[in-house]
Design brief:
There is one protein chain. The chain has three domains: 47 residues, Rubrerythrin, domain 2; 197 residues, Orthogonal Bundle (Citrate Synthase, domain 1), CATH 1.10.580; 106 residues, Cytochrome P450-Terp, domain 2 (Cytochrome p450-Terp, domain 2). It is 51% helix and 6% strand. It contains 19 helices and six strands. Strands 1-2-3 form a three-stranded antiparallel beta sheet. A hairpin with a 4-residue loop joins strand 4 and strand 5. Helix 4 crosses helix 8. The longest helix is centred in the middle third of the chain and has 23 residues. It starts with a strand and ends in a 29-residue tail after the last helix. It binds carboxymethyl coenzyme *A (CMC).
Length: 432
């Protein structure tokens, strides 16, 4: 492992420190480069830029590795649950019995949305995009609980446990209320005695009563979905939360910004596109051959949705877990979904095709997650909201890391300006 690096500009050499993470990830520290040389680093979209040091999640895309606080995602998916994994991601350790109980209690006590906040919903049209509603209502938490959202790191960290539990619990309640509001159905309030996922199903689907929500497999599958989305290193929404948080903005405001970032189809919205694609294949009576052929012509608009990943270039470990769970859930619920059959055939065909193999394009987490959600009675419009509920603990952990870093600085990248050089203002009468 090199211990030092240098940059040579003409004849002059500038030493650059080398950083190495606990899993051997290497970086060249360029923080002083501009002061020393007048040069900045250019890395459009930050694809090769480490924006922070973080102790939360380790991701090795070449080898399909994802670990939270050191623990492999496969072990968490098998032995843990969403609430425990949320605790691990936020606080750094698995909770002992009493800490787990106290955390669960705090979540239960802070699930409800107060009457004044409920009125915010009425200000939205019934067909408002759910993610637009979610981000606005989460932002309003800062207005409703100003003592937890002072925009002062020290004070907000002193109230962090309560603010974090409120955020996790209320984001779920708001999600369920958005579902009800859009359908003109009366809200169902959270029950203190129900576990996290059962409570979500209760608030969303128990009136009119839908029998299938009582099946333990349903809450278990939802638990797995939330757990697999808990955190994913410095993706678009998490970097957004860190960026906003770095200005000392409070937790709720930063989370709201993360929800906005997640709403885009290139990030949290891909699971909707996968189901739409599978549905189109089904409606056309095709076996996917046409879609595979179209995906290979290089156009971005024809891509095989649910395939490929910005950092996983071998396999997405979450996709393996979710693909297996998808079949199990449908079997246990005795449901058949023609879209699952299409998805499996499509995967099989693509994975034999040199185009996908040579570009290292494999199914990602979104390839099967939409099919599970359909089986759980969750409509397409709510898929990204489910992603946001799952990702909230990861955002919270990242906000906390920013807020507690005494050496942290505000996120403020630079740019290469390519606009006009200096010119004079022209009065209106002289303009052509
Ligand atoms: N279908 C067909 N071709 C593809 C696909 C695809 N899904 N993805 C990438 N390619 C091709 C691309 O055209 C390029 O080909 P060439 O080398 O001939 O120009 C090559 O593969 C490399 O593509 P890239 O754009 O450099 O890959 P990327 O790593 O920058 O993009 C991606 C990653 C996820 C944006 C892309 O794979 C994609 O658009 N996938 C479909 C959308 C999707 O499923 N998104 C969910 C991502 S997982 C959710 C999350 O974690 O937020």
């Amino acid at each position: 492992m090199p211990q030092s690096a240098s940059l040579k500009l003409d004849d002059k050499e500038y030493p650059l420190p080398v950083l190495v993470g606990t899993e051997g990830e290497k970086a060249i520290d360029t923080r002083k480069l501009r002061a020393d040389t007048g040069f900045i680093c250019y890395d459009q979209g930050y694809g090769n830029t480490g924006s922070c040091e973080s102790a939360i999640t380790f991701l090795d895309g070449d080898n399909g590795i994802l670990r939270h606080r050191g623990i492999p995602i496969e072990q968490l998916a098998t032995f843990s649950d969403f609430v425990e994994t949320a605790y691990l991601v936020i606080y750094g350790e698995l909770p002992n019995k009493s800490k787990r109980k106290a955390f669960g209690m705090l979540l239960r006590q802070n699930a409800a949305i107060e009457t004044q906040m409920q009125r915010i919903f009425e200000g939205f049209p019934k067909d408002a995009p759910p993610m637009a509603m979610l981000s606005s209502i989460v932002a309003s938490l800062a207005a409703h609980y100003p003592s937890l959202a002072t925009n002062n790191f020290e004070k907000d960290l002193a109230n962090f446990d309560l603010a974090a539990a409120m955020a996790i619990s209320k984001v779920r309640t708001i999600g369920a209320m958005i579902y009800r509001y859009q359908r003109g159905l009366p809200y169902i309030f959270p029950k203190q005695d129900l576990p996290f996922c059962d409570n979500f199903l209760h608030m969303m689907l128990s009136e009119p009563y839908q029998e299938f929500i009582a099946e333990p497999e349903v809450a278990r599958a939802l638990n797995l979905l939330f757990l697999l989305h808990t955190d994913h290193e410095q993706n678009c929404s998490t970097s957004t939360v860190r960026t906003v948080g770095s200005s000392a903005a409070n937790l709720f405001t930063s989370l709201s910004a993360g929800i906005c970032a997640l709403s885009g189809p290139l990030h949290g919205g891909a699971n909707v596109s996968v189901v739409q694609m599978l549905q189109a294949i089904h409606d056309e009576g095709d076996d996917g051959t046409r879609f595979i052929a179209a995906a290979k012509n290089g156009s971005k608009s024809n891509r095989l949705m649910g395939f490929g990943h910005a950092v996983y270039k071998n396999f997405d470990p979450r996709a393996r877990i979710i693909g297996k769970a998808c079949e199990e859930v449908l079997n246990k619920l005795g449901k058949e979904d023609p879209l699952l059959t299409i998805a499996k055939k499509l995967e099989e065909a693509a994975l034999k095709d040199d185009y996908f193999l040579s570009r290292k394009l494999y199914p990602n987490v979104d390839f099967y997650s939409g099919i599970i959600m359909r089986a759980l009675g969750i409509p397409n419009s709510m898929f990204t909201v489910i992603f946001a509920i799952g990702r909230t603990p990861g955002w919270i952990a990242n906000w906390r890391e920013v807020a507690s870093n005494p050496k942290g600085r505000i996120y403020r990248p630079r740019q290469i300006y390519i606009g006009p050089v200096k010119r004079d203002y022209v009065p209106m009468a002289q303009r052509g």
